[in-house]
Amino acid sequence: MKPAKPSTANEVHPDATTDEAERYRAPALDKGLDILELLSEQKEGLTRAEIMKALGRNASEIYRMLERLVARQYVMRSAAGDRYSLSLKLFALAHRHPPMNRFIAEALPVMQAFAETAEQSCHLTVYDRGNLLVIAQVDGPGTWGLSIRLGSRVGLIDTASGQVMLAFQSAAERDRMLAEHTKVKGEISLAGTALASSFAMIREQGHLRKDSAQTFGVTDITFPILGPSGHAIASLTTPYMRRIDEYVAPSLDDVTTMLGTAAHKLSMHETR
After folding, report:
1. Where in the chain is the domain with CATH 3.30.450.40?
2. In whole angstroms, what separates CA 207 from the centre of its chain?
3. Which of 95, 235, 254 is nearest to 163 (CA)?
4. CA separation (Å) from 42 to 35, 216, 232, 241?
5. For 113-142, b where at least 16 C-beta lie within 10 A, e where not — what string?
6. CA-CA distance, 68 to 32, in Å (whole number)?
């Protein structure tokens, strides 16, 4: 009979890795993360039954976990109460985390290149708690221009930035954003039917170009910055000001094309 081979200090049992993983399992956390990961791939959300089927979980497991995720605002329930989709809370948390800093760091060189070439200022906004927050801003190279102060909050309803942000969301997410909308100073109210028509036009064109609702003589041009799902994670806007002296600056159409190129560079959509 052969003697058993002595084990060494560095030898790892085949089941050691599995045992280690099993030792630190947190079933409730796993269920919650499974739901979040599943919903992150769904543009229109899922019913509770669809979530149960996809994850192979029973009704009581899914019900309790969904209720907690809704209560903590990581998941939102549709107006009819029958579908669940991700909220923007995870994205909002990222605002306070290095990934947002990396996004801004990546965006600034692109924005600066646009400003130099287009000879216009530009700013980047994200949705935050009922309106939009300016997270990056670059001035044009000229001696005068219009810029939006970094950290400012701008209207969700009456600005090109807000309308583009809303247009490129799922219907459920758009409803949620509109439900928690809070007006900023001077924001103009718009009827729901007018907004819905505007959203369809924006999605078809891929951007919005309109006279500013805040300042005379300014044409706002906005393109969405798209995330992996094809929904807007930010809006890139230039408040275009036309020169009327003898200096020949890039035209409105030229600047629109330039801004679209800049937004495309920053987007993470699969068609990029």
Report:
1. 92-266
2. 15
3. 235
4. 11, 41, 15, 40
5. ebbeebbbbbbbbbbeeebbbbbbbbebee
6. 9
Query: What is the identity of the amino acid at 92?
Result: A
Amino acid (one-letter) located at 206: G
pLDDT at res. 8: 47
CATH code: domain 16-87 is: 1.10.10.10
CATH classification number, 92-266, choose in 3.40.50.150, 3.30.450.40, 3.30.110.70, 3.40.630.30:
3.30.450.40
Distance of alpha carbon 261 from alpha carbon 17, whole angstroms:
48
Give me the pLDDT at residue 80, please. 78
Gyration radius of the chain's alpha carbons: 24
Q: Pairing mode, if any, of strands 153-154 and 131-138?
A: antiparallel
The whole-model pTM stands at 0.66
pLDDT at 270 (0 to 100): 46
> Is 40 in a helix, a strand, or coil?
coil
Q: How far apart are the first and last CA of the chain?
A: 66
User: Facing residues of 222 across strands?
Assistant: 208, 237
Q: Split the chain (272 residues) into runs of 10 and give each run's mean pLDDT.
A: 48 52 76 89 86 90 90 87 84 67 91 96 93 94 84 92 95 90 87 85 96 91 93 96 88 97 86 38
- How many helices (H) and strands (E) the chain has is answered by 10, 8
Q: DSSP code of 250?
A: P
